[in-house]
Design brief:
Layout: E1 6-8, H1 28-45, E2 53-57, H2 66-85, E3 89-95, H3 99-104, E4 115-119, E5 143-155, E6 158-168
Parallel strand pairs: 1-2, 2-3, 3-4, 4-5
Antiparallel strand pairs: 5-6
Helix pairs in contact: 1-2
């Protein structure tokens, strides 16, 4: 069994969702550092050792909104710098149409996550054949792909709802 830590922190200011915490251009850096420290503390409390990745969840947003996109990238960089200072690895979960695309296509790669978990619900169990960006990006062993969501599956007499992921990226170190 794999343990994949996902941290849901602040969300973009231009996002239409009902996230309880939104970052802003003026709070992005400080909030990223605060959330990064919280993510490290939580990972350590759960027994995840240094060197483990923590994947920052960023839900979809309008990446054409320059102010919003710049704020998200500031937050992501600050989050990652905080994790690295505590010797944890950074990962990022986002959507190929927006949040993952923003990180994968950013011109300035400074302090961006080293692992990318992209949501593309195409039902293809792969991290290579449907990779939408440069083929040398996030290689080797730095990609994960959420290829199916809310799948109803039977386990014995129970029906459960699961998401499916193809995984070729770091997971938590425990034990």
């Amino acid at each position: 069994m794999l343990l994949i830590p996902l941290y849901v922190g602040a969300q973009p200011p231009c996002q239409s969702g009902s996230s309880p915490e939104k970052l802003t251009p003026s709070t992005a850096t400080s909030l990223g550092a605060k959330d990064g420290a919280d993510a490290v503390a939580r990972a350590a409390a759960l027994g995840m050792k240094k060197g483990s990745p923590v994947y920052l969840d960023m839900e979809p947003y309008d990446t054409t909104n320059t102010s919003c996109n710049d704020a998200v990238l500031k937050y992501v960089r600050s989050f990652g710098k905080t994790l690295h200072a505590k010797t944890y690895r950074t990962g990022y979960y986002g959507f190929t149409s927006s949040s993952a695309k923003a990180v994968a296509t950013a011109k300035d790669r400074t302090d961006l996550p080293g692992n990318l978990w992209y949501a593309l619900w195409d039902k293809k169990n792969t991290t290579t054949s449907d990779w939408p960006w440069g083929k040398t990006q996030y290689t080797p062993h730095s990609r994960a792909h959420q290829y199916m969501v809310n799948s109803k599956e039977k386990r014995g007499s129970y029906t459960i709802t699961v998401d499916r992921d193809a995984w070729d990226a770091p997971v938590a170190i425990t034990g």
